[in-house]
Amino acid sequence: MNTFKNKDGKQILMAMVKGIQANKEYLGEVDGLIGDGDHGMNMNKGFTLFESRFADKEFSFTEGLEELGTILFAEIGGSMGPIYGTILNDAASAGEDEEDIDVKVLAEMLRSGLAGLQEIVQAQVGDKTLVDTLEPAVKSLEESAVLGEEFSLALNKMKEAATDGRDSTKDMVAKFGRSSRLGERSKGVLDAGATSCCIILTAMADAMIELLS
Amino acid sequence: MNTFKNKDGKQILMAMVKGIQANKEYLGEVDGLIGDGDHGMNMNKGFTLFESRFADKEFSFTEGLEELGTILFAEIGGSMGPIYGTILNDAASAGEDEEDIDVKVLAEMLRSGLAGLQEIVQAQVGDKTLVDTLEPAVKSLEESAVLGEEFSLALNKMKEAATDGRDSTKDMVAKFGRSSRLGERSKGVLDAGATSCCIILTAMADAMIELLS
Amino acid sequence: MPRIMNNPDDIVDEMLNGFLKAHADIVEATDNKRVVKAKNIPADKVGVVTGGGSGHKPAFIGYVGKNLCDAAAVGEICSSPTAAAFLDSFKAADQGQGVACLYGNYSGDNMNVKMAVKMAKKQGITVKTVVANDDVASAPKEQCEKRRGVAGEVLMWKVGGAKAAKGGNLDEVIAAAQKAIDNTRSVGIGLAPCTLPAVGHPNFEIKPGTMEVGIGHHGEPGIAVCKLENAAEMAKRMVDVVVPDYPFEAGDEVVALVSGLGATPVMELYVLYDEIECLLKEKGIHVYRPYVGNYFTSMEMMGATLTLMKLDDELKELIDTPANSMGLKQN
Amino acid sequence: MPRIMNNPDDIVDEMLNGFLKAHADIVEATDNKRVVKAKNIPADKVGVVTGGGSGHKPAFIGYVGKNLCDAAAVGEICSSPTAAAFLDSFKAADQGQGVACLYGNYSGDNMNVKMAVKMAKKQGITVKTVVANDDVASAPKEQCEKRRGVAGEVLMWKVGGAKAAKGGNLDEVIAAAQKAIDNTRSVGIGLAPCTLPAVGHPNFEIKPGTMEVGIGHHGEPGIAVCKLENAAEMAKRMVDVVVPDYPFEAGDEVVALVSGLGATPVMELYVLYDEIECLLKEKGIHVYRPYVGNYFTSMEMMGATLTLMKLDDELKELIDTPANSMGLKQN
Ligand SMILES: Nc1ncnc2c1ncn2[C@@H]1O[C@H](COP(=O)(O)OP(=O)(O)O)[C@@H](O)[C@H]1O
Ligand SMILES: Nc1ncnc2c1ncn2[C@@H]1O[C@H](COP(=O)(O)OP(=O)(O)O)[C@@H](O)[C@H]1O
Ligand SMILES: [Mg+2]
Ligand SMILES: [Mg+2]
Ligand SMILES: [Mg+2]
Ligand SMILES: [Mg+2]
């Protein structure tokens, strides 16, 4: 299949939650190296709050993204509230009228999320933030859509692009956020946001692939 | 010889100073076990102050005791200021008119110091304080005086009495001072004041023995 | 780190409960449990708001009170409050004369404040902002818009709060607070790290026998790691960072604020202040008003910050205005 | 322990230099460098004096000020001031109406105060004393004359200072201070030890994962070592020691003072106070006035003390009297 039903999307959200929960400690460690060590905790708090409120409810993929985004935004604060809140909410808005999600719709949703983010932060590719994961992931999906590739193939390619993007942050000097004050000292380790973004996109893609098969 | 000249007593005082300085850390450790760990520091501060003010001056044994006592009393404070200050000042007063110091004079001096102390503290033998060192030491000197023993022999006996007295505090329960709040928990270790008193008396006796020979 | 806490996830809410009970004469709760407001805000004055992550006591809620901030938004430990909390703080502080939001330069706070200001505008509340960037060690002077806000924020709140209390309009309050922070420079020296309660181990390291010069309030590394120095040397190092940056000069009158980072005994802050005051005097810089104590901390970090603010007549008057909050009481 | 200091032997003198510079509006030096006095002591009032070892900031000099103590004698770290310092404090405080010396029950202080009182008498100054013994854990009730004075001393100074300020004569001041301490009970829980600067290593141990219930302000062990508990359990343990000893009963109005021991973040004190207030409320005990903060510390010890004082009309009035010192400012 090349599409899944938007209304079947709950399990995708739940997989994203599991991805963050399983990596809480790891994300804290990554953030601890050049940030303040709370990234795993912040993300886990928001995603777990979503889980506890919505595990027993029915919701579509876009509804789930919207609710998760709103929780991050309104109840978590920090940098992650506005950043992931904006990405998720804007992605949800772009897809909320769709019954079926295909490569093209997903690409448009994530592009919309990224565009929303870039309205509030100035970070570009190369600045050692989650933009370094998200931008190549979105681009990969867009290319797959143009080429008319299979959804699963597109998702696997996106995962690779996200992973490469994440890894690319290792040799970068941070330009935004807490670690930007380190200058050259910020080199040599992954960016925490780029890492969590890769975890989220990977969990999402894997859950979609399962749904598609 | 069975006497030494009061006016030759500077080296006795300097030996007492060295005794405390050499045991600063040790006294701190002993006090740390059931007190607050500052006994070595407190004693060292007072004795070293005395050294720095009087190393270049001439003074007799009783003058030295008086000056050391006054420094402890007026500049150190804590418990040691009044306690050793009183012992030393009262001992000095009892001997200040003597040209020659013999067993009897020394016994009277230290008895006088102990009596002065007991005017300000209630501790008796058995209460795990420096009284447990000082009282048997004084008694030993008094006995030697009655028996007419050689001064050196008397001093060696006094050292033994002081050491036994110090060691006797090990199995006692503290009744006064900081460690008294420990009750049974104060058993098993020496009392800090009993230990410093033994160090002072031993250094004093050894210096006197040297002076006598 | 042995702590007095229950579930670390609840520490901020429980702290707020205790804070509100302990200081009921000065502050009160609002409908948003992450917003604390001053009691009896005088009518018709410009509202003054701040906010930031928790774990910095007395900052931020400890500066809500008379002639200081009217409301504060409360975040998780070391994490910006939500935009919603900032918005509700604006509402709690607004008396129809607009709101001055005086906060520190951290990316989370910047984003959340920006969004809250937008939302407030839609609801008819005018909010203007001043962003504290007093931490010299966090960026070179040419990029001072990147610098963090640290203990200098306390002086910004003092000045902005006093200006509002004296009847300044929104632009005047903003101008005074902006002048306060523009005239202010800080630097911190860290001696031991802190631990996020929910993480349980320090998230950075200061090797025994070393110190981190220019450390941030969350352990952000500074400009140099060097061997642990004595108080006189530390004082010189701090003065040598802060004084030339502004620069403070002979004849200047300043506020000098020495704040502990949390676990350093207050006794040691006085030792440090004694050295600093002597160095400033040597340079002909006169301390018009000293503040020494725990004014802006990072849980149980050890170390201290030095903050200097150059005074003019207006700033003197505003610094001298009485104030009453948990963190700052002045007659 | 990374410290901000120069030679540890000079830390008290250097701290005093910084303290006097930082609080020149409240205190001033005297001819005895180990005696600090309040500025502008009103004529014709009873003098109020305290004193004790250093390292307990704000105690003792932090409670010298308006409507509090008029002078304080300063000792070495954790060591009683000399008799001479107490005597000079009496002289600094005396306005011809006699002096109330309000201090804590430690053998060094007892000896030095006793001698100083004798010397003062020879010089024509009448001094009467109240010895604080509020620490429940330091001796059984039958031997309460052996108990240590801890944070309850702050309330004794507050009450005694206010009574003197209101024109009470020496016997009235002594009676009020004695009533204050008789109505007061405290207990401390220690989570981490402190280190004497000149010694350089902690002089006692609190094993990780454990806590010392009933710890003294110098690390004197208490009544039990138990596993580290959460805030709710610690609060219960403290309330269960303090409440039945006095005993405080339903309908009682109390002052509740929760003080940090030094390095515990103030945030955690609020968490603890929240729990304590709930437990007291359950018992029908009403907190008339809470104090939460670092009121009596032991350098960088971690942990907290709880102090309760039963109020009557006189004590309420005296507790409510404004005060101004470094450690306690109250309008
Ligand atoms: N201004 C910014 N622009 C883009 N991304 C940012 C910015 N600030 C922070 N980030 C992202 O947020 C991540 C850190 O998140 P987190 O640790 O949760 O927040 P905080 O930095 O407030 O502690 C960084 O690794 C980075 O990817
Ligand atoms: N009330 C007292 N009576 C007799 N000796 C005492 C008393 N208080 C303390 N001491 C002696 O003082 C010693 C402790 O001295 P030190 O550590 O210098 O003072 P502090 O206890 O004030 O820290 C104890 O070991 C004990 O011998
Ligand atoms: Mg972080
Ligand atoms: Mg001791
Ligand atoms: Mg953070
Ligand atoms: Mg001591």
Keywords:
A: 213 residues; mainly alpha; two-stranded antiparallel sheet; 9 helices; 2% strand; globular; C: alpha/beta; Rossmann fold; Hypothetical Protein Tm841, Chain: A,domain 3; six-stranded mixed sheet; 32% helix; binds adenosine-5'-diphosphate; binds magnesium ion; phosphoenolpyruvate--glycerone phosphotransferase (chains A, B); EC 2.7.1.121 (chains A, B); DhaL_dom_sf (chains A, B); transferase (chains A, B); glycerol metabolism (chains A, B)
Span of the ends, CA to CA of chain C: 37 Å
In the sheet with the most strands of chain A, the strands line up as 1-2
Principal-axes shape call of chain C? globular
Q: DSSP helix count of chain A? A: 9
**CATH C-level class of the largest domain in chain C:** Alpha Beta
Low-confidence stretches of chain C: none
Number of strands of chain A: 2
Instruction: Just name the CATH architecture of chain A.
Output: Alpha Horseshoe
Largest sheet of chain C: 6 strands, mixed
Question: What string, H for helix and E for strand, traces the elements of chain A in order?
Answer: EHHHHHEHHHH
- Which small molecules are bound? adenosine-5'-diphosphate, magnesium ion
Write down the CATH topology of the largest domain in chain C.
Answer: Rossmann fold
Give the assembly state of these chains: heterotetramer
Commentary on this structure:
The complex is a heterotetramer, with two copies of chain A (213 residues) and two copies of chain C (331 residues). Chain A is mostly helical and 213 residues long. Chain A has one domain: DhaL domain (Serine Threonine Protein Phosphatase 5, Tetratricopeptide repeat). In chain A, 69% of the residues lie in helices and 2% in strands. Chain A has helices spanning 10-22, 24-34, 39-54, 61-76, 80-95, 103-120, 131-147, 151-168, 192-212, and strands at 4-5, 100-101. Chain A has a two-stranded antiparallel ribbon. In chain A, helix 2 (24-34) packs antiparallel against helix 9 and helix 8 packs antiparallel against helix 9 (192-212). The N and C termini of chain A lie close together (7 Å). Chain C is of the alpha/beta class and 331 residues long. Chain C has two domains: 10-182, Dihydroxyacetone kinase, domain 1 (Rossmann fold); 184-311, Dihydroxyacetone kinase, domain 2 (Hypothetical Protein Tm841, Chain: A,domain 3, 2-Layer Sandwich), CATH 3.30.1180.20. In chain C, 32% of the residues lie in helices and 24% in strands. Chain C is built from eight helices and 14 strands. In chain C, the strands form three sheets. In chain C, strands 1-2-4-3-5-6 form a six-stranded mixed β-sheet, sandwiched between helices. In chain C, strand 1 (27-29) and strand 2 form a beta hairpin. In chain C, helix 4 (152-165) packs antiparallel against helix 5 (170-182). The termini of chain C are far apart. Chain A binds chain C through residues 28, 31-32, 36-38, 41-42, 45, 73-83, 120-121, 176-178, 180-182, 185, and chain C through 9, 53, 75-85, 106-108, 111-112, 114-115, 138-139, 146, 148, 196, 198-199, 203-204, 216, 218-221. Bound molecules: adenosine-5'-diphosphate (2 copies) and magnesium ion (4 copies).
